[in-house]
Amino acid sequence: MSKLTDAAALPNTRLLNTRLLNTRPSPMAEELSALCEQVNVETQVAPIITTAPFAKETLDVSLTALLKNTPDPDFIWIFVSRTAVRHFATYLLQNKIAFMPKGKIIAVGPGAEMN
């Protein structure tokens, strides 16, 4: 799906009397619904999944080990969604951890790239 940033780019001539079942998780569901409402598409939000970070204790063990790899230029960091990026960034901020890896960072999809 293309970036959901400009409702004017949607082909609104075919959207008259259109209703949408929006199954995206929060906060993406609200973003999509807001765009649809701009072009008079009625939305019903019913997330099929929810997302949440791991428990702090689990993350502390996992990320402490992983963050030791930041100086390694051959270590690749891959994020599969903007939610993964947000949870990772939140963890870093809450724990006052600087993240400056020497290896590549890969963001899968435009949502992950925007974050």
Outline the structure in words.
Residues 31-112 form the Tetrapyrrole biosynthesis uroporphyrinogen III synthase domain. Its EC number is 4.2.1.75. It is an enzyme of class 4 (lyase). It comes from Psychrosphaera algicola. InterPro entries: 4pyrrol_syn_uPrphyn_synt_sf, 4pyrrol_synth_uPrphyn_synth. The protein has 115 residues and is of the alpha/beta class. The protein folds into two domains: 7-45, no CATH class; 56-114, no CATH class. The chain is built from four helices and four strands. It has helices at 28-38, 56-67, 82-94, 110-114; strands at residues 19-22, 42-45, 77-79, 105-107. The strands form two sheets. Strands 1-2 form a two-stranded parallel ribbon. Strands 3-4 form a two-stranded parallel sheet. α3 links the parallel β3 and β4 (105-107). The longest helix has 13 residues, at 82-94. It is elongated and about 55 Å long.
Short descriptors:
elongated, two-stranded parallel ribbon, alpha/beta, 4pyrrol_syn_uPrphyn_synt_sf, 12% strand
